[in-house]
Amino acid sequence: MLLLAHNMLTSHVKGVKNGYPMLLKVNEIDEKEIEFSGEFITRMLPRLQWPVLVQVLKDIGKPDLVPAEVPEDAADNEDFLKAAHHALLELDIINGELECPESHMKFPITDGIPNLLIKEEQE
Amino acid sequence: SLSLSSLLYAMSQQPSPTGNTYVFFFAQSHPDFIWPDFQACVSACGVEVDLDTAQLPTPTSPFLVCNLKNDEAVLNLLTRCVCCRFCLQLWGSGATIDAVMDNAQTLVSWKDPFYSASSFKFNFACFGRRSCGKERKAAYFKRLEKFPFEGKVQLENPDVEYYILEDYGLHKPAKDEPERIYVGRLVGHGRRDLLDFFSLKTRNMVGNTSMDPELSCYMANLAQAKPGMVIFDPFVGTGSLLFPCAYFGAHVLGSDIDWPVLHGKGKTSRANVQDKKRGSHENIPATFAQYNLSHRFLGVFLADASVPAWRPTFPFDAIVTDPPYGIREGVKKIVPTKFKSCESGLHYARSEQYDISVAYDDLLQFAAKHLRMHGRLVYWLPILQDEDFKTPNHPSLQFISQSVQFLSGRLARCLITMEKVAEFQPEAPRQKVEITNIREKFFQPSTKGAQE
Hints:
The structure holds 2 protein chains of 2 kinds. Chain A has helices at residues 3-8, 38-44, 50-59, 78-90; strands spanning 23-31, 91-99, 106-110, 113-114. Chain A is of the alpha+beta class. Helices cover 25% and strands 28% of the residues of chain B. In chain B, helix 2 (34-45) packs across helix 7. At the A-B interface, helix 1, helix 2 and strand 4 of A face strand 9, strand 10, strand 12 and strand 13 of B.
């Protein structure tokens, strides 16, 4: 699971009022090299919750990969776009766990695929 | 040759006040999809096509004669036009060899100034007949001798190719004389090559219901897949619909309720496999890698489409999907049967048949909520050939196009494209989607059959 996806996911546990962002625990992470597209990152910026990306990078032990705030010249700032590209698309969570921040229901990530099904008798 | 390429370049850049006339020749594999695909390409490429005086394609005549600004506009359109075989700059048309050649001879010198400067060859193509035959070819060549070609004939890699294109119509048995003949210079080919590129025969992973590559490509066009977009499939299965979207530049992701399919485990759909299990390459990421599209793959998620886990403030640019409708693959969702408070997190879940009307109602609601404004929803709806059906509607989604594909027996399916035109309002009054329960009806004898 990419951190871009983490930014897009929200808890869907019934009755939960504030399920965003999901907490993330990581056991195994794969760093890969993905072809860079500044256009794509620029287009994603208005949709992203930037503070959520900054926080989750801290949570998984990769702080300071991106600045705390999106710079004003983001679209022309290639260093920034490349850093955002790396954080959003090149870190692949292979094994770990997503957790609903309100109900604390847990969703395992195995082989890179989050299991978002509401499971039986979960505690 | 340098002079020719510079001439071609000059031609392609030159704006002509009236535009040039072109004839598009379309493939016949899915006649109902030609026009929606062509229009989707026109809008995705931002090309202007003058259709006021155009002759539109029909199921029995897959030709479009229309004006475009120049070759460059045509080539732009052809980069993604899957339904098109090729496009000619039209020199002339007519019903007989003499008529078309007279017409072409008077027009060619001012319409196509570079015909004389280059090596060339003539090709023949027919619709409604395999070949026009030796005698007709000889008659064409006799007339062509009178044309003032200065370049020489070259069968291998000529500078320019010309076509004589004959339309015999759809008749059984085939007619001896064509109904219409077109002569012109080949501008370029459409993307029929993508059918081979995405062939299920060579694809790493397929399933029992993997979508035909041609139809998947049409869906990518209808969704207007382009760089900078995020496209989602909530019933992703083996990923068939996402590959062409990624090919045309979009970033893609999908979800499904089927654990073995997403993890590339379980039984393979390939015949003649010894232990019947999916191999290590039979999974979605490996298939993106096979197509060199890994950099546009955002992942798959094991999830229930009826309980979306996506933040609505991160809108999708398009949703493409083929919901399972219960004949070859079951419609399932997870339902909590014993629900206590969320705080305790106590849930029981079981998978049950997902009522088909509810499934489609959920899909339209999901699209209305999660699409960006003017984003598109492209989806299949199962229908019965012998029954009328009502296209689903939604206050936030405007109908764009639909095309029907006939399947075996009474079954057919309709590819529907809708565009988000109004913000989602949860409380807005609307008619719930009601779909014939195809599964129920499919296993009943046809009423039409019973009367016969």
